[in-house]
Amino acid sequence: MDLKIPERLEHSVAPSSFANHRLPATHLHPAPLTVQDLGPVLIVSPHPDDETLGCGGLIAQCATTNHPLRIVTLTNGDASHPGNHRWRARLAQIRWREQAAALKQLGLTEDCSEWFHQADGSLASIGGFEYEQLVARLAAVITRHGIESVFVTAIDERHEDHQFAALIAVQATTLVAYCQRLFSYPIWSAEIRAAELLRSEQPYVLNIQPWLARKRAAINEHRSQMGSVEMPAGGFQIPESLIEQKLQPSEPYNLITDPDTWIGGMATNLFKRGRVTAPSARTPADTPAEEPSV
């Protein structure tokens, strides 16, 4: 199926401002982009469910057509429900099993996915050499699998892990010359988006109607995030409104046409405050991640 230009930027502009918003020229594209034109795809997921919510239809289509696809999950998702260290370790295992089951529903095998095992909620606190290594490690995945298109959450999402996932993905792709495209996918979208972001994006939608049942089944595998009675009280639960939004017959994506402008002030401010240093281009340590024991 094709990635088609949406007629409206419903996922990019706040509803109150849409009526008076005129699309900049960079939001126009002459032709639809087919999945086959993407080359090998990498989906960067901040937590072990974002890939299913944001890209479940894309994953299912790639799996069905044997299109090359990899998934990297940056954090363990172990902070969604409060508890001590032992509980968080157990929750990480639960989330890993749920993600594996969800990806199976979408037709993907476990060997197409790997975890970077960062603590949930920690990406904003990583700096210096540790940050450089995280960027280099993602670049190594891109290089090892010949990735040409990377998908990641938007830089202005309302979750710091999602923002930093975007920053890490941008910097990793700059280390690999043949990685041609960077797309964002929305989860916790900003209500009002900055004009410079809109000028740095071209919107697409993917028709996922043939794979909608698979995506629904995959989302339902994330039981710990769906209000399961087995989970402790006071934890996170995916809002019904978000699930309904993610089960629409199309998935929205934005092609990032100007990555430097897209990450913009966020990266500049972090560099100035010393929390993040620019990644070096040295050969990354290429050590595969180990999944949690089950």
Describe what this molecule looks like in 3D:
By secondary structure, the protein is an alpha/beta fold. It has a single domain, classed as LmbE-like (Rossmann fold). It is built from nine helices and nine strands. Strands 2-1-8-9-7-6-3-4-5 form a nine-stranded mixed beta sheet, sandwiched between helices. Strand 6, helix 5 (160-173) and strand 7 (181-185) form a beta-alpha-beta unit. Helix 2 (50-64) packs parallel to helix 3 and helix 2 packs across helix 7 (212-220). The termini are far apart. Residues 1-31 and 276-294 have low confidence and may be disordered.
Q: If you average the pLDDT, what whole number results?
A: 82
Helix content: 25-40%
Strand tally is 9
The end-to-end distance, rounded to whole angstroms, is 37 Å
Percent of residues in β-strands: 15-25%
CATH classification class: Alpha Beta
Report the order of strands and helices.
Answer: EHEEHEHEHEHEHEHHEH
Which CATH-level-2 architecture? 3-Layer(aba) Sandwich
Helical run tally:
9
The tally of structural domains comes to 1
Largest sheet: 9 strands, mixed
CATH superfamily membership: LmbE-like
What shape does the CA trace take?
globular
Q: Biggest sheet, strands in spatial order?
A: 2-1-8-9-7-6-3-4-5
Keywords:
294 residues; alpha/beta; Rossmann fold; disordered N terminus
Short structural description:
The chain is of the alpha/beta class and 294 residues long. It is 36% helix and 16% strand. It has a single domain, classed as Rossmann fold (3-Layer(aba) Sandwich), CATH 3.40.50.10320.
